[in-house]
Amino acid sequence: MKTSTRHLAAALCAAAFSLCAVAAPLRPTAADNGPDEIVVGAALPLTGEESRIGGFYKAAYELAVKEINDLGGVELRVYHRKIPVKLIIYDDKTDPATSRNLYERLAVQDHVDAFLGGYSTELVQAQTVVPQAHQIPYVNGGGAATEIYHRGFKTVFGVLSSIENLAYSECDFIEQMQAQGKLPKPLKMAVVWENTSHGKDFVAGLSARTKQKPQNYKIVLNEAFDLHGKDFTPLLQKVKATDANAFMSDAHLDDYITMQRQYRQAGLHHAYVTYGARGPEKAARDALGDSVNYIFAATWWNSQIPNAAVRAFDDKWAKAYPKIPQEWYAALPYETARTLFIAMTEAGSVDKVKVTEALRHIDIRDTIIPGGHIRFEADGQMVAPFVVTENLPGGKVVIVYPKSESTGSAVLPVPSN
Amino acid sequence: MQDTLATLISALLAAGLYATMSYGLALIYGVLKVINLANAGVLMLGAYVTWWMWDAFHVDPLLAPIVVLPLFFLFGIVLERVAVRRVIEQEPIVSLLLLFGVWLILQNIAYAIWTGDTRSIETPFIESTFKLGGIQLAWPRVYVFVAGALTLAVLQLFLTKTQFGRAIRAVSQDREAARLAGIDVERIYAVAFGIGIALSAFAGSLLSLLFPFGPDFGQALQLKSFCIVVLGGLDSFVGVAFGAILLSLAEAFGLRYMAASLQNLISFVLLVVVLIAFPKGIAGIIRSLRRV
Fold this sequence. Notes:
- The complex is a heterodimer.
- Chain A is α/β, with parallel strands linked by helices.
- Chain A is built from 14 helices and 14 strands.
- Chain A has a 5-stranded parallel β-sheet with strand order 4-1-5-6-7, sandwiched between helices. Chain A has a 4-stranded parallel β-sheet with strand order 9-8-10-11.
- In chain A, helix 2 packs across helix 13 (328-347), helix 3 packs parallel to helix 4 and helix 10 packs parallel to helix 11.
- In chain A, 55% of the residues are buried.
- Helix content of chain B is 76%, strand content 3%.
- Chain B is built from 13 helices and 2 strands.
- In chain B, strand 1 and strand 2 (135-138) form a beta hairpin.
- In chain B, helix 2 packs parallel to helix 4.
- The radius of gyration of chain B is 19 Å and the shape is globular.
- Chains A and B meet through helix 2, strand 9, helix 9, helix 10 and helix 11 of A and helix 1 of B.
């Protein structure tokens, strides 16, 4: 009896192993011809507060994937062939918890080879715990706060330069203008910032530069406000009560629109006005009309950057999406996806450790990003220059800094009505 | 002195806005004893309808209430007949959840129709300002304040001077006694709910003159409306107006000494304090003073 039971158990085990042998290589390994496809996944805010920008990210990722697939896919050395990319995108509804869960699903159910990141610091911060937990390479173009990269996560990379760096870029520009006598010295700044890690980085950058160059700057008001606020009039009254000659705000798009409208209604005027990375967006001009004139912004990208790669991207984008404007929300995710594919090519495989290692040492020179160079620091975040733009009447936007990429000169101080 | 005056005027203008967005909530609670969690969704839809008429048909947003008020009055009546009436006699949590569900549906409809893009109305009036004793004021804020004050006056007149208004008050005080007196309580419910929804949509239409908005619009304002209604006393329009003034003064003067990021904290601290110390709100305090 015992023997027959043992035989039965052995037979069952053998059957189970045989089944495993048939079922296991759902995706072929290096010993074979390689996988049929490279699976890349992302969760994006396609609905909810950030859905407008999420739409840009989806379009950009799809463009980058289409482009590489039109060429046959990603060249993987170990298989001696190109393998097409399959992109899985889920909607996280602009909710950090949903976003995190969807990345978990991408890792556990969809068995992705790599992640592309979502948009907005809050969501990126939530989702990046998943690539760290599963050790899956993750590249994003939507989270700039330094806090994301200061957690020691080894597989997380970001092509957005930090908000502190944004503040430094604006300061570099301001110093040039001070040297030309176009802005007062010291510049008395009323600094208001959204109460997020994004805003904290902005004020940290300005504070650091003020400490470093007290002859150039003086902070006369330093105040946080709640994200997605509705009534900024009490805050703006505080600004009005100061003798500031620069209004330095760090805000998301909807707060920028609300605050700038109330700024104008309160009759405020400063020699220099900025909302950090916000300024030239079409949505803001549609909402505010001429009230956006003479606002300065430091952005990660601008379609006017005089560079052949940018012009090529502009053409590609206009052809693929004639109705979606070329804003940085389009360029950065496109470059994010391209960076991941280049890293896979350099790794020669989709092995997660090798791709992570390739990302760590990547050095791409022909990019559309200001400065044209993608390379990650030890913490996984990229350091790149920002372009400073100014909105001018007639819907014009000019790049005023850096000089190498400028397309016009700054109108400063901001004219009063 | 100038700063204090500017803060005071700004607070009063904000009070007009706060009161306008809370009247609908107070009326519906006063009569039906239902907390309208869909208020934020209706505010948002009122803003969208105003924007859509301006964007597609170039209708001046100041004229939009001519369409918004009757349209949402009808919507309110339909919503009451189809959904709210069925749960009104059940535990309060049921109507709360039902209207929360309605809010989510309205929000998702807005996403489907208008996407999540930030919308806003831009007309010369919205940008216009004037100076009063050296203080710059925005015409749209003054307009919203005046509209809020007029709404309060019209509501008070309607509730005290008309037969129907008196019937609404009777139902809000004691529905069974009103029924025994021959009042058609179900009809009062439907009309009161319709008026409440129309008032919220009207507030949304006014808010679109001040703020950009998207499908999530109204969330933060809804919380503020709850504070105001609790402050004022859950079923009194005059109390709501006083609640709005109290909250906006607390915010405006509080923020002169506190960080702007604590603006919402002021509302919620007031809410907690009032709930503990004066659970019947300002209206309750006035009533007890009258009795004394």
